[in-house]
Amino acid sequence: MTGNDSTGELVSKLSQEVSALVRDELRLAQAEVSGKAKKAGIGVGLLGTAGIIAWYGVAVLIATVILALTLVLDAWLAALIVGVVLMVVAGVAAVVGKNRVAEAAPPVPTQTVESVKQDVAAVKEGAHR
């Protein structure tokens, strides 16, 4: 920018710079949202894994452990003990998965929103000069 630029040239340059700024902010927002979506995906995957482990764990371990415990306990007591242990393990996996999903929420580009607010404030301040 030189001191001899006309108003039309200045407006044209401003328009180009604002367009570039908006494009850059949109790219930043996209990167931020995709990072949060990845975290949410991992959390959902962990929740799914917890469900599968609980399902297969109940099927296999109940049969194995109950058979072993029936050697020293009544069958109903052996089944109860094994069921409670498996549900505790599934509960822990579910809590860890839920926390991972919560870390990613909300999937809003908060850093980009703050950056845009700063940009708007800077443009307003420059316009008032």
Q: SSE layout and pairings?
A:
Layout: H1 7-69, H2 75-104, H3 110-128
Helix pairs in contact: 1-2, 1-3
Range of strand content: under 5%
Calculate the terminal CA-CA distance, rounded to whole Å.
17 Å
Mean pLDDT: 83
User: What does the largest sheet look like?
Assistant: none
Question: How would you describe the overall organization of this protein?
Answer:
By secondary structure, the protein is mainly α. It has one domain (7-114). The protein has three helices and no strands. The protein has helices spanning 7-69, 75-104, 110-128. The protein starts with 6 loop residues before the first helix and ends with a helix. 5% of the residues are buried.
